[in-house]
Amino acid sequence: xxxxxxxxxxxxxxxxxxxxxxxxxxxxxxxxxxxxxxxxxxxxxxxxxxxxxxxxxxxxxxxxxxxxxxxxxxxxxxxxxxxxxxxxxxxxxxxxxxxxxxxxxxxxxxxxxxxxxxxxxxxxxxxxxxxxxxxxxxxxxxxxxxxxxxxxxxxxxxxxxxxxxxxxxxxxxx
Length: 174
What we know:
The protein is α/β, with parallel strands linked by helices. The chain has helices at residues 65-73, 92-106, 118-124, 126-133, and strands at 15-18, 23-26, 34-38, 61-64, 80-84, 109-113, 137-140, 161-166, 169-173. The strands form two sheets. It has a seven-stranded mixed beta sheet, covered by helices on one side. Strands 1-4 form a two-stranded antiparallel sheet.
């Protein structure tokens, strides 16, 4: 694993820290047949989180964004990409590069999960907002164990929203 230190986790567009291998043929993290990128590092630490192994920002594997793009280009039959975690918005530059690539070069739609709300990301601005503007959908908000609801599609708790987006603006809420 290449050594990489930054005051902002994954703050460059050339590297991304992943918690595990890229998935393909996934049907539980968005509509259609999807690839899923599992980002490493989350500071929210939601009680009851299904992925606590992704919290440590120093764990996982640092890979080049170019290698991720090549891997995604080799996948067949996918219609979209979903960023999961960890917290994808802790690595906005790398996620932005990958999102732009799959939309332009592969024609896929792009979704992301985030423990941050849409409003917080928009207010923060910067690269996080630029990444959000590339998304077709965002599942936002932290997982809240007391609001857990297994009947919700693509969400774990009632506070979370499935936001359909166009150029960063909400077009529909599920």
